[in-house]
Amino acid sequence: MRSPSRLVIIGIMALLAFCAGWYILATPGRKPVVISVYEPPIISVEDRVRDIGQVPTDSKERTSFLLYNIGGQHLRITAVDTSCGCTVADVSKKVVAPGDFTRIRVELDTSLKLGKLRKTITVHSNDPKRPDLPLFVVGEVLPKPMEGHARINLQPRDRLALFKGDCAKCHANAGKGKSGKALFLADCAMCHGVNAMGNHSAGPSLLGGDYENEAYHAQMRRVIANGSPKSPQMPPFSQKDGGPLNDDQMDSLVGFLKFQSFQQRMGLLNKPDSAELEDETVFQDALKEPH
Ligand code: HEC
Ligand code: HEC
Q1: Which residue's alpha carbon is nearest to atom 24 within ligand 2?
Q2: How many Å apart are CA 246 and CA 161, to the nearest integer?
Q3: If you take atom 19 of ligand 2, which residue's CA is the nearest one?
Q4: What number does the ligand 2 atom closest to the CA of 209 have?
Q5: Average pLDDT for residues 204-233, to the nearest whole number?
Q6: How far apart are CA 118 and CA 139, in angstroms?
Q7: % of the chain with per-residue pLDDT over 90
C-alpha cells in the first residue's frame, strides 16, 4: 500500500517543479542570466527609450540609463555621442566586468527647444554585435507660463520703457548673452508667441513674409533694430538706439525667423527637428526591441 502514495507524491512534486521552472523561464524579469566566460561582451539596457514627459523650458533636465554587461568578457565603453543640446554628464564606469553595470547620466538644456523632443545618445563599445547602440530621450518642452500684466499702450516718447527699471526684468534681462531661438523666447515671445506665430493683441505673427526675399529680410532686420515706424509697441532693440541687443544677436533673430517660417511652410512646427528624425527606423526598432 506504500508505493502508490509515494508515486503520487513524486508525481505532484515533479508537476510543481515543472510549473515553477516554466514560470521562471516565461517571466522576463525572473529569467536567470547565465554568463559564459566564452561569450564576448554583451551590452544590455534596461530601457532604450526614456520618456521624461512634459518639462518646462529653460531648465536642466537630468536622466540616466543603466547599461549591463551580460557577456563573458569585459565591456569597454569607448565613446558616447549625443545629438545637440544634450550632454553626457557622466559615465560611472568605462570598463564593465561581466555581470556588472554602468550608469550614463544625461543632462538636457531645454532652453534650446520647444514642443516635441527627441534626443539620441549613441554608446560605442566593444560589443561585437552592437558596437553602436542608440538610446533615446523623448518628451515635450512646454513654454514657461509668463506672468503678464494688463495691457500697456506705449507712447512714442517712451518707446524705450520696456528696457528700463522693473520692465527690463521681464522684457530685456532674460535675453542677455543669448542668441537665436533662446533669445527670441526670452525677449520676443511674450509679444509674438513662442513659435513667432503671434500672441493675440500684443504682437503679430512674424512668419507670414518671405525671408528668402532679400528686401523683406532686410526690412525685418530694420524693424528689430529701429522699432516699427508705425507703432511704438514694437520698440527699437538695437544698442545704437538704446535697446539691449548687439548686431550679432539681431542677425541671429532674423536667422531664427527665417528658419521658423520655413518650418511652418513645411508643416514641421511642433514636430521633432529633422535632425532628430534622421534615424526614424532606428528609433522604431528601439521601441520594438527595448533591450
Ligand atoms: C512680470 C514680467 C513683466 C514685467 C515686469 C513687465 N512686463 Fe510687459 N509684458 C509681459 C508679458 C508676459 C507680456 C505679454 C502679454 C501678456 O501676456 O500680458 C507683456 C506685454 C507687454 C506689452 C505689449 C502690449 C500688452 O500690454 O500686452 C507692452 C507694451 C509691455 N509689456 C510693456 C511693459 C512695460 C512698459 C513694463 C514696465 C512698466 C512692463 N511691460 C513690465 C511681462 C512683463
Ligand atoms: C512689447 C511687445 C513686443 C515685443 C517685446 C517685441 N515686439 Fe516685435 N512687434 C510688436 C508689435 C505690436 C508689432 C507690430 C508693429 C506694427 O504694427 O508695425 C511688431 C512688429 C515686429 C516686426 C515687423 C513685422 C512685420 O510684419 O512688419 C518684427 C520683425 C518684429 N516685431 C520682431 C521682433 C523681435 C525679433 C522681437 C524680440 C527681439 C520683438 N519683435 C519684440 C510687439 C513687440
Answers
A1: 206
A2: 18
A3: 234
A4: 26
A5: 95
A6: 7
A7: 57
